[in-house]
Specification:
Layout (H helix, E strand, L loop, with lengths): L1 E5 L4 H12 L3 E6 L14 E4 L5 H8 L4 E4 L12 H21 L3 E5 L27 H21 L3 E6 L1 E3 L8 H10 L5 E2 L3 E6 H14 L5 E4 L2 E4 H12 L6 E2 L2 H18 L8 H6 L9 H7 L6 H14 L5
Parallel strand pairs: 1-2, 1-4, 2-3, 4-5, 5-6, 6-10, 7-9, 8-12
Antiparallel strand pairs: 9-11
Length: 330
């Protein structure tokens, strides 16, 4: 089976590529001209160069493919020019899905995010049916992913797009090259640069488990359904403490109130804007999101797909060890 993967050199995308190769897929990787290829270097994949905003390259990439994994996304909690995020996450999703329809792709797995889902105020785990709306989305990343998932649902209903939607929680593990916002937090903690924390929580999943869940969605998922691919719910204090223990650092002991951190985030963003820095050390949207515990349940994927996840500490350990072995911690 010829299978196209967008975002194939990224954190989640490269994990999907490895999983596909393990089970015998013939993988075509869609990469932008300037995409670093370290994560797929040496792998037996066919590389096609294109861009989600260039429909001609997408048509060429999708031709002859039976399956598509659309894992490419602009994942930033802050952007100096937010319109670029919508161009990739919303318009780009529309473009690649239409290319898949035109090419007769038989099965699509769209990588959404738990960012599109609602959250329970009492901190109990949310699931695929927890209500959410565009107005409840904090920041441009969450808004763009909500809009993109809505678009995919519309194409499924109106144009018979044969797509299954997966909603990864917070992937952690090896090959987080950029790193992602969560990976940056783990790296800072491993370096001993996270002496304080705010009272929030995340659902931590090993990136390789998330990749395995994508293939299960391809094989067993119901078209039009969505499945949370998550792991273990943990407080931020426990996450940082686990990372500190793994890295041989002191765990954070200072709990900062959200309202005290918010002004610092505004200043950090302004410094990043004025200096042209890629990302500020903290973001306003990140602080606003941290006011809630972002806990989720993968029960639906476990029961319907056979999805399974390892302990969060294993994901955190693999992430720290990968950062160490690739000289990120120096």
């Amino acid at each position: 089976m010829k299978t196209l993967v967008t975002g194939a050199s990224g954190f989640v995308g490269s994990a999907i590529v490895r999983r596909l190769l393990d089970v015998g897929h013939n993988v075509r990787a869609l990469l932008r001209p300037n995409s670093p290829q370290d994560n797929i270097k040496g792998l037996d994949v066919e590389i096609t160069v294109g861009d989600l905003t260039d429909t001609a390259t997408l048509k060429q990439a999708a031709t002859g493919c039976s399956a598509l994994f659309h894992a490419a996304a602009d994942y930033r909690l802050w952007a100096p020019h937010p319109q670029s995020m919508y161009a990739t996450n919303v318009d780009g999703t529309r473009n690649i899905m239409r290319a898949a329809l035109d090419a007769g792709v038989q099965r699509v797995v769209y990588t959404s995010s738990v960012a599109t889902l609602g959250i329970h105020q009492d901190g109990t785990p949310a699931d695929e049916e927890t209500p959410s709306s565009l107005d409840s989305m904090i920041g441009h990343y969450k808004r763009s992913k909500f809009m993109a998932e809505t678009l995919v649902h519309e194409l499924i209903e109106k144009e018979d797009l044969p797509a299954v939607i997966v909603n990864p929680s917070t992937p952690v593990g090896p090959r987080d090259i950029k790193p992602t916002p969560t990976g940056k937090m783990i790296l800072d903690a491993a370096r001993g640069r996270m002496p304080a924390y705010v009272d929030t929580g995340l659902n931590i999943a090993h990136v390789d488990d998330v990749a395995a869940g994508h293939l299960l969605a391809l094989e067993k998922g119901v078209i039009g359904e969505r499945y949370i691919l998550g792991g273990e719910n943990m407080s931020l204090k426990d996450i940082l403490s686990q990372v500190a223990t793994i890295a041989g650092r002191k765990p954070p002991r200072i709990r900062l109130p959200h309202n005290a951190v918010l002004p610092m985030a505004w200043v950090a963003q302004e410094i990043a804007r004025l200096s042209g820095t890629a990302q500020p050390i903290m973001t306003v949207d990140g602080v606003r999101m941290a006011k809630k515990r972002m806990f989720y349940s993968s029960a639906k994927a476990e029961h319907a797909l056979g999805y399974a996840h390892r302990a969060a500490v294993d994901a955190l350990r693999d992430a720290v060890e990968w950062f160490r072995s690739h000289d990120y911690c120096s």
